[in-house]
C-alpha cells in the first residue's frame, strides 16, 4: 500500500543526493583500515570516521554516545527518542580491509574518484555507502518533519572485517532495538537470512619418532630392527581425518537445503593445516621441525558453514560425532582421540533467520513495491554483523546499495543504487517505526 509520505520522502532523498555523494567521498577519504590487518596510525582512522558521522547525526537531532569494544576504537551510537515496541537500529561498520596490491588499482584507493556513475575506493561499497545511505534516509525523514513512533538507533561499529567485536558490543546494549537493518551492499536484494559460521580446530596427536625408523611402523613382521622405534605420523592421521570430514560435508550438502540459499553452501572448508612436534595449550605444534622427526601433532582449522534454520549446538554435536566415528575406526586414535576446539579466536557467528513476513521484511518489500521496484528475497552467503545481533535474539536484515570488487582492487559502488538504497531505507524505516499522530 502506498502511503501519503512515500513519494515526498523519495523526492527528499533525491534532492539531497549530491550531498549524500559528497558525504560518502568524505568517509572514503578517511582511511579506516582495521588495525588487526595493518597497524599504521595513518591508516587506522576509524575514530575520525566516527567523528564525521557523529557531526551528521547531531545535525539531524540524534543524541549520540560512544563505547569502546577495543582500545582506542570507538563504536558510535545515535538515537531519536521513541517507543520500544517499534524500535529499529540502522547499522554499518566503519572499518575497511587493507588496500592490498596498490599496483592493481587504477584509482587512488582513498581518493573516492567518481567515474561513469560509480565511486571508487576502499570501503566505498563495503560499507561506507551503507552508512551514507542510512544518514541520507534519516536526513530525508527529518527534513519532511516526520516524527517516528518507535525509537530509531544508529549503530556505527568498528571491527566487522576482523571478528565483529564492535557489533557484539552494540548488540548487547539495553534496551535492545526490536530489529536491525545492516546496510551492507545487497544490490537492492532483501537478505533476511544468512548461514551460521564456526571456526573449529581439530588436533590430532600421534607419536614422535625418527624418520629412519618409519619402516618399523608401517610394515608388518617381527624383524628385530622393527621391535623398537615405532612412531605414529600425525600428518597421515590428519590427512585421513580430512576424508571423514569431507564425507560429512557431502552428506550435509546433498541432503539439506534452505529456501533462497544455493544448495551445498553448508560447507566444511579446511583452511589451515600445521604439523610438527609437541603441542601447546592452543593445540598448535610447539616445534615446526624438519622432516627427520615423525610429527606427533597435526592441527587442522576448519571454516564450517551451516544453514540459517540449523542450531549451532546441533551442528557442533554432529561434527564431534563425525570425529569420534573416525577415531573409533583406528586403534591408535581409539586410545588417543582427537581434540575439538570451538570458538577459535573468540569467534562464533550464529545464523540469521528472519522470516520473510517479519515486519522489517515487509517494510522493505512494501517500500520497493510502492516505488515500482522488483522484490527479491535471498539469503546472504557471507556472514555480517547481523549474526552478532542474532546472538542476542535481535532479528536482522541485510539491505543496501550495489557494490563491486569489495576487498579487491578498484572497489566501487554504483551511485544510482546508493540513491535507491537511501530511499528504500528511509521508507522502510518509516513503515517499521510508524509515525506519531
Ligand atoms: Zn562489510
Automatic annotation (TrEMBL):
This enzyme's EC code(s): 3.5.1.18
Alphabetical list of InterPro entries matching this protein: ArgE/DapE, ArgE/DapE_CS, Bact_exopeptidase_dim_dom, Peptidase_M20, Peptidase_M20_dimer, Peptidase_M20A
SUPFAM superfamilies noted in UniProt: Bacterial exopeptidase dimerisation domain, Zn-dependent exopeptidases
Annotated Peptidase M20 dimerisation domain residues: 223-328
Any Pfam family: M20_dimer
Catalytic activity: N-succinyl-(2S,6S)-2,6-diaminopimelate + H2O = (2S,6S)-2,6-diaminopimelate + succinate
Cofactor(s) the protein requires to work: Zn(2+); Co(2+)
Broad class of enzyme this protein falls into: hydrolase
This protein's pathway: Amino-acid biosynthesis; L-lysine biosynthesis via DAP pathway; LL-2,6-diaminopimelate from (S)-tetrahydrodipicolinate (succinylase route): step 3/3
GO molecular function, one term: metal ion binding
Keywords: Cobalt, Hydrolase, Metal-binding, Zinc
Stated family: Belongs to the peptidase M20A family.
Name of the featured protein: Probable succinyl-diaminopimelate desuccinylase
Amino acid at each position: 500500500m502506498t502511503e501519503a509520505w512515500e513519494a515526498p520522502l523519495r523526492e527528499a532523498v533525491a534532492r539531497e543526493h549530491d550531498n549524500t555523494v559528497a558525504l560518502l567521498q568524505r568517509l572514503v577519504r578517511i582511511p579506516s583500515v582495521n588495525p588487526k590487518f595493518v597497524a599504521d596510525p595513518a591508516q587506522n582512522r576509524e575514530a575520525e570516521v566516527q567523528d564525521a558521522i557523529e557531526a551528521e547525526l547531531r545535525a539531524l537531532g540524534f543524541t549520540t554516545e560512544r563505547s569502546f569494544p577495543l582500545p582506542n576504537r570507538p563504536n558510535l551510537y545515535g538515537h531519536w527518542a521513541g517507543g520500544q515496541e517499534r524500535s529499529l537500529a540502522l547499522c554499518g561498520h566503519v572499518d575497511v580491509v587493507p588496500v592490498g596490491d596498490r599496483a592493481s588499482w587504477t584509482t587512488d584507493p582513498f581518493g573516492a574518484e567518481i567515474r561513469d556513475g560509480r565511486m571508487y575506493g576502499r570501503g566505498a561499497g563495503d560499507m561506507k555507502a551503507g552508512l551514507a545511505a542510512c544518514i541520507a534516509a534519516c536526513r530525508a525523514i527529518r527534513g519532511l518533519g516526520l516524527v517516528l513512533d518507535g525509537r530509531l538507533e544508529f549503530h556505527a561499529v568498528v571491527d566487522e572485517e576482523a571478528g565483529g567485536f564492535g557489533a557484539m558490543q552494540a548488540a548487547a546494549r539495553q534496551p535492545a532495538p526490536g530489529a536491525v537493518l545492516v546496510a551492507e551492499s545487497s544490490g537492492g536484494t532483501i537478505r533476511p537470512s544468512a548461514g551460521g559460521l564456526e571456526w573449529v580446530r581439530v588436533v590430532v596427536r600421534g607419536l614422535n619418532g625418527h624418520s629412519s625408523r618409519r619402516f618399523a611402523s608401517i610394515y608388518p613382521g617381527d624383524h628385530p630392527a622393527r621391535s623398537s622405534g615405532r612412531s605414529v605420523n600425525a600428518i597421515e592421521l590428519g590427512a585421513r581425518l580430512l576424508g571423514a570430514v569431507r564425507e560429512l560435508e557431502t552428506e550435509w550438502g546433498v541432503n539439506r537445503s534452505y529456501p533462497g540459499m544455493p544448495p551445498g553452501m553448508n560447507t566444511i572448508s579446511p583452511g589451515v593445516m600445521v604439523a610438527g612436534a609437541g603441542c601447546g595449550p592452543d593445540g598448535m605444534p610447539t616445534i615446526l621441525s624438519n622432516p627427520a622427526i615423525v610429527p606427533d601433532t597435526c592441527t587442522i582449522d576448519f571454516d564450517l558453514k551451516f544453514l540459517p534454520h540449523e542450531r549451532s549446538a546441533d551442528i557442533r554435536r554432529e561434527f564431534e560425532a563425525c570425529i569420534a566415528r573416525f577415531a573409533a575406526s583406528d586403534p591408535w586414535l581409539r586410545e588417543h582421540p582427537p581434540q575439538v576446539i570451538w570458538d577459535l579466536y573468540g569467534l562464533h557467528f550464529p545464523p540469521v533467520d528472519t522470516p520473510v513476513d517479519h515486519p522489517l521484511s515487509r517494510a522493505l518489500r512494501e517500500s520497493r513495491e510502492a516505488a515500482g521496484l522488483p522484490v527479491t528475497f535471498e539469503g546472504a552467503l557471507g556472514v555480517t554483523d547481523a549474526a552478532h545481533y542474532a546472538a542476542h535474539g535481535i532479528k536482522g536484515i541485510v539491505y543496501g546499495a550495489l557494490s563491486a570488487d569489495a576487498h579487491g582492487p578498484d572497489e566501487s559502488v554504483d551511485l544510482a543504487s546508493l540513491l535507491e538504497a537511501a530511499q528504500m531505507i528511509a521508507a522502510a524505516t518509516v513503515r517499521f517505526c510508524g509515525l506519531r499522530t
